[in-house]
């Protein structure tokens, strides 16, 4: 079974000739993320050595680290795992808003501005329903537990 990897390259790299590789997605922000379910060496032979190779099934990073490094897809996945088991409705709503924010950023970076705006509005709507004094506590708790 092939494992999922994300290869991080500089944002300016020209991505070409990857048609024989099982690509999940290619995302650009702080890095060019080449998300594959394939052997990373196939990409390396074409594009050269990446800045970093992430084995998605093994490497775990915190939500804040992922988010602030523009790795919104992975940040979204970290939050979803927490959201699924969350029992506190207010905290669940906060997590859902952050998931929508990550999804909004993913679409924005792909040039899907309308979809991004719609997701951002949904996220802001959810956050606006929460007591303002709880938001910092939710963020601190999430930071410590992700």
From TrEMBL:
Pfam families: DUF309. InterPro entries: DUF309, TTHA0068_sf. Gene3D superfamilies: TTHA0068-like (1.10.3450.10). This is DUF309 domain-containing protein. It comes from Acidianus hospitalis (strain W1).
